[in-house]
Amino acid sequence: MILEGNYEEYLKPTPEEKIEKVLEVQELLAEKHQTTSSRVSLLLKLGNLLLSAKEYEEALTSYEQAIKVKPDYYQACYNKGIALSALGLKEEAITSYEKVLKIKPDYHQAWYAKGVSQSALERKERSLLSQLKLSAIYF
């Protein structure tokens, strides 16, 4: 069964179940009849499964493949930033979040993640600006 829903759903399966799901998604991706929409959706799911298994480099590859197929796929751009951040590549993560915000300026998760990454790089003023933008979205 392919996982549906939000990221928390990707954390529930056991490592063995995750491996099974990764293999299932990879089999589906290997099928020639996939539509573009189906392919990018499967690549995002694969990336999410790998991200939840802390396989950050493999997740990054999956997100990059999704973005290559659909450059304006903001969810894949955002998750790419998460994977980059987990790998300690905060500057690259910020670039990915900025791409998300060009596509979807009110995506509050990207503003938050960008601010966290900026803070990790000790860019307090920029982090504060990101957090203020995030506040403006909610109020």
Written account of the structure:
- It is a single chain.
- The chain is mainly alpha-helical.
- It has helices at 7-11, 15-30, 36-52, 56-69, 74-86, 90-103, 108-120, 124-138.
- It folds into two domains: 1-70, no CATH class; 81-139, Serine Threonine Protein Phosphatase 5, Tetratricopeptide repeat, CATH 1.25.40.10.
- Helices cover 77% and strands 0% of the residues.
- It starts with 6 loop residues before the first helix and ends with a helix.
Summary of the model, kept short:
The chain is built from 8 helices and no strands. The protein has helices spanning 7-11, 15-30, 36-52, 56-69, 74-86, 90-103, 108-120, 124-138. The protein is globular and about 45 Å long.
Rg over CA atoms, rounded to whole Å, is 16 Å
Task: Name the structural class.
Answer: mainly alpha
- Total strands: the figure is 0
Please mark out the parts with pLDDT under 50 across 5 or more consecutive residues, or reply none: none
What proportion of the residues is helical, as a percent range? over 70%
| Number of continuous helical runs | 8
Shape estimate: globular
Number of domains: 2
Order of helices and strands: HHHHHHHH
**How confident is the prediction overall: mean pLDDT?**
84
State the separation between the terminal residues, measured CA to CA: 39 Å
For the sheet with most strands, the description reads: none
Q: How much strand?
A: under 5%
Oligomeric state as shown: single chain
Task: Output the keywords.
8 helices, 2 domains, 139 residues, Serine Threonine Protein Phosphatase 5, Tetratricopeptide repeat, mainly alpha
